[in-house]
Design a protein that fits this description.
heterodimer; A: 175 residues; mainly alpha; 82% helix; B: 191 residues
Chain lengths: 175, 191
C-alpha cells in the first residue's frame, strides 16, 4: 500500500512540468480514474480546499489523499513521493549550475532568458486579476499591496495577514 | 545559524504562501533576495527559469535551490549544503502537512463557512498585488541591463520581455517553449 502511494505521487511529481495547476488532470487520472482512491465529487472539493490552503498545491493534494488512506504515515509517504523528484533534480542542477554559469554560451542564453521569465511572472498577474473579479471597489487592494511591497519593502506576509483580517471584518460588517 | 534561519524562513513561506506557486514567489523573493541576500536578483530569476523547465512545483524547486545556494554562498561544504536544501524543503512542506491533516480531520465543513469565504474576499485581490510586486521587483539592472551600461542588451531585453508577454498571454505559447526561444535569442544576440 505504502509503495503504491509513493509510486503514484512520485510519478505525478516527475511528470508535472510548469507547476501547480498543470498537475490537476494528471492527478485526477491517477487517483480518481485508475486507483479510485477518491471519487470525482470528492476530488472537486479537494481541489477547492487545496487551493485555499497555503503551501504548494500538489503537495496539499498529496497530503490529503495520503491521510485519507493511511493517516499520518500515509500523508508522509505521499508527500515524500510528490517532493522527491523535484528535490533530486534541483539539487543536481544547483550542484552543477555554478560550473556552467560562467560558461560564455550559458551566460548569453540566460541574458536572453531573464527578461522573458519576468514576463512569464507578469502574465499570471493579469490572469489572476481576471479570475479575482476585481471591481471599482476592490481594485485598489492589489494596487496598494503591490506598491507597499515594491516601494516600501513591506513583507508580503503582512499584506496577506492584513488582507485576510480585512476580509473577515468586511464580512462581519456586511452580515 | 544558517539552518535555523532557513527553517524559519521557509516555514513562514509555507504557512503564508497563498495563491499557488506564483503567489509564493513574492514571499520567497522578499526573504531570500531582499532580506537575507542569500540570492542575487538574477540568481532568483534563473531559479524561476529552471523551475519552469524542470518537473515539480515552483515552491519546492526554489526552496531546494535556495537552501543549497545559501549554504554554498556562506562557505559551507557540499554535504552541509545538501543538508541546507533538505532543511528548506522540509520546512516549506511542514505547515501544509499540519494544516491539511487538521483540515481533513475536522475543518472540512468549516471551509465553506461565511468566515472563511470572507477572509478570501480580502486575500484573493491581495495575491494579485503580490504577483504584481514580484514582477516589479524583478525589473532590475541585473535582469535587463541598463541604457547607460549596455544599450544593445537593454533594448534586446525589453524586446524579449514584450515578445514573451505577448506570446504567452495572447498567443498561448507554452512557457517552456518561450524560455527556449529566448535562450536562442540570447545566444544569437547577446553572446
Amino acid at each position: 500500500m505504502y509503495a503504491e502511494l509513493f509510486k503514484t505521487f512520485f510519478k505525478i511529481g516527475i511528470f508535472t512540468i510548469g507547476g501547480g495547476y498543470a498537475m490537476i488532470p494528471l492527478i485526477e487520472e491517477e487517483v480518481v480514474n485508475r486507483r479510485r482512491w477518491v471519487d470525482k465529487d470528492e476530488m472537486l472539493d479537494l481541489i477547492a480546499v487545496a487551493q485555499s490552503c497555503p503551501g504548494v498545491f500538489a503537495v496539499n493534494i498529496a497530503i490529503f489523499i495520503g491521510y485519507k488512506l493511511n493517516k499520518v504515515r500515509g500523508a508522509i509517504v505521499t508527500t515524500l513521493g510528490a517532493v522527491l523528484p523535484s528535490f533530486l533534480i534541483i539539487l543536481a542542477i544547483a550542484m552543477f549550475f555554478k560550473q556552467f554559469e560562467d560558461n560564455r554560451v550559458v551566460a548569453a542564453m540566460f541574458r536572453g532568458i531573464r527578461p522573458a521569465v519576468v514576463a512569464l511572472i507578469a502574465v499570471p498577474t493579469f490572469n489572476l486579476a481576471k479570475r479575482a473579479h476585481l471591481n471599482r471597489f476592490t481594485v485598489w487592494i492589489p494596487v496598494v499591496s503591490a506598491l507597499v511591497i515594491w516601494l516600501l519593502g513591506v513583507s508580503p506576509i503582512w499584506v496577506i495577514i492584513i488582507a485576510g483580517v480585512g476580509g473577515y471584518i468586511y464580512g462581519r460588517i456586511a452580515a | 545559524m544558517i539552518y535555523l534561519k532557513l527553517f524559519i524562513t521557509f516555514f513562514k513561506i509555507g504557512l503564508f504562501g497563498f495563491g499557488g506557486g506564483y503567489g509564493m514567489l513574492s514571499l520567497i523573493q522578499h526573504d531570500t533576495v531582499e532580506d537575507y541576500h542569500w540570492l542575487s536578483s538574477s540568481e532568483f530569476t534563473d531559479i524561476v527559469a529552471i523551475s519552469q523547465m524542470t518537473p515539480g512545483p515552483i515552491g519546492i524547486n526554489s526552496a531546494t535551490y535556495c537552501g543549497y545556494t545559501a549554504c554554498v554562498n556562506a562557505g559551507y561544504s557540499v554535504p552541509m549544503a545538501v543538508l541546507g536544501s533538505t532543511t528548506a524543503t522540509f520546512a516549506l512542506v511542514l505547515p501544509s502537512l499540519i494544516l491539511m491533516v487538521l483540515i481533513s480531520r475536522m475543518f472540512m465543513m468549516y471551509m465553506k463557512t461565511r468566515t472563511v469565504t470572507s477572509v478570501f474576499l480580502g486575500l484573493r485581490p491581495a495575491v494579485v498585488g503580490l504577483l504584481a510586486a514580484a514582477t516589479l521587483l524583478l525589473c532590475t539592472r541585473e535582469n535587463f541591463s541598463a541604457p547607460s551600461e549596455d544599450l544593445w542588451q537593454f533594448c534586446i531585453s525589453i524586446f524579449l520581455f514584450v515578445a514573451a508577454f505577448y506570446g504567452v498571454m495572447f498567443m498561448k505559447v507554452n512557457p517552456i517553449r518561450m524560455i527556449l526561444y529566448s535562450a536562442v535569442a540570447g545566444l544569437l544576440l547577446l553572446y
